[in-house]
Amino acid sequence: MTSVASARAGALPERVATAANERIAAGFCPTLVFAVVDGDDSEIAAFGRLDDGRAADGDTVYEIGSITKTFTAALLADAVRSGRFTFDAPVAGLLPDVRIPSRGGKEITLLDLATQYSGLPRLPLNLLPVDAANPYADYDAAKLKAFLADYQLPRDPGASYEYSNLGYGLLGYALAQADRTTYPDLVDRKLLKPLGMAMTGVALTDEMRAHLAPGHDANGKPVKDWDFDVLAGAGALRSTANDMLRYLKANMRLTPPALADAIATAQQPRRDVPNLGRIGLAWMTSANGVLWHNGGTGGYHSFLGMTADRKRGVVVLTNAAIDIDDLGRAALDDAASLRTGLKPVTLPDAELDDYVGTYRLREGFLLKVFRKDGGLVTQATGQAVLPIFPSAADSFFAKPVDAGITFTRDAQGAVTGLVLHQHGDHWAPKLSPSEIPPEPQEITPDAAVLSNYVGQYRFDFGAVLDVRLDGNGLKAQLTGQAAFPIFASAPDAFFYKVVEAELHFEREQGAVVAVVLHQGGRDMRGTRIRTPQ
């Protein structure tokens, strides 16, 4: 096994190594580490340095996020293979003290949870973190039970696919409870120790902490690690490329672990997933037969995949919240697309000023371009601010997502519009000052008026908005997100400053009964479900 830095590894395709070097140089992410299998060859290829200047290597520790779900799936497969459970067993049977929602006479089964067909939402609606930078840390078993106690499924279990961190967290919790232990202990005893993964776990050991790659957000700023409680089975594991290479080989059936049958059971495709292929127990299978799963937390991203013939496999780890799936897919498929041309250049301030303005992508959906921190940032209607970086005159790219912008000019050199390159090419003309909608103007209601809006509002798309008093104003917190201030612009009308979004509260007989969230060109109505006691 070889560890390389800023070079081509024998098992890693040269174009992927080149792209990795380019992304490190462009500041996309501090480090990238690959665990690669190509036939009989396997290597660790490491790029970049940690914040303290140390080079990344095969022992550098990363959060692997939702790749944890494949471990939870293997735990279920092992339990089924051993005869402890069946896939069609209701999860309620493993948690007799928990009310598990059902619908139409159908109960949520273990298979429903493992294939993302449970009918549960992506996140529990009462996930309103005290610290949005570490959103799962304070979500415990009591909160999970409270959510399940009154949740009504929107459709029958087994009816359709919906990716659910809640569902996989519940599955991990149920398996651990049935074994009379905790999820960290169960995964360590059943999987990590048998596979020799000594630098992998839910909690950081002293040795793991000494090798931890600190996480960064999409803009390169340091962020907190994520900690999990009851939902650990959805995304709590941390690992290294060396350990993940062991896991990869076990899943590629290149080693003879005792878990081979369970692994094969977990990978078997069982249900359809619209636009993505098929799903087994967590594992996705693409149309070309590639098995894969990815993961992401607030400061990390990961990818795990292998070809249908199990000849090639890869793990990609980075300590930035940047999508690196294309690197993983390109390591498996020489024909897979790979994002390139990501070398930023420096443009004069006067030229950057030319691009500032508002552009209409479609009616009601605008893209604002403005200066910030010496560069350019964009903000689409209903979305957060996103920095963009020049790769040439009139050409820019974004770091967190696969998107680019080309500005257009007329014969006199004036900027007339832009083309957004994201899922196709989208033309947006630059608006004149008279065409730009006016910004909402802030007013200051008294505290008695503000108290009318305090409460919780449930939306049809499966989230709750919690509105509460905060000093002399209001804060609103959507499920799984941070609490942000909202500002009054008129009676019953409020707006955000962090994103392009507005709230309009509805009344019946003088009482506030609902709120409409206007964001991204959509109007979403939430019914009031709780008022302060």
Explain this structure.
The structure is a single chain. Helices cover 20% and strands 30% of the residues. The model is unreliable at 1-9 (pLDDT under 50). The N and C termini lie far apart (62 Å). The longest helix has 14 residues, at 68-81. The chain has 533 residues and is an alpha+beta fold. The chain is globular. A hairpin with a 5-residue loop joins strand 19 and strand 20 (415-421). Helix 1 packs antiparallel against helix 10, helix 2 (68-81) packs across helix 5 and helix 2 (68-81) packs across helix 6.
In short:
By secondary structure, the protein is α+β, with helices and mostly antiparallel strands.
Strand order of the largest sheet: 1-3-2-13-12-11-10-9-8
Count the E strands. 29
Number of helical regions: 12
Average predicted local confidence, pLDDT: 92
Shape: globular
This entry's quaternary arrangement is single chain
Report the biggest beta sheet as strand number plus sense, adding barrel if it closes.
9 strands, mixed
Helix percent reads 10-25%
Low-pLDDT residue spans: 1-9
Strand proportion: 25-35%
N- and C-termini, Cα separation? 62 Å
What is the CA-atom radius of gyration, in angstroms?
25 Å
Task: Provide tags for this entry.
29 strands; alpha+beta; 533 residues; disordered N terminus; single chain; globular; 30% strand; 20% helix; nine-stranded mixed sheet; eight-stranded antiparallel sheet
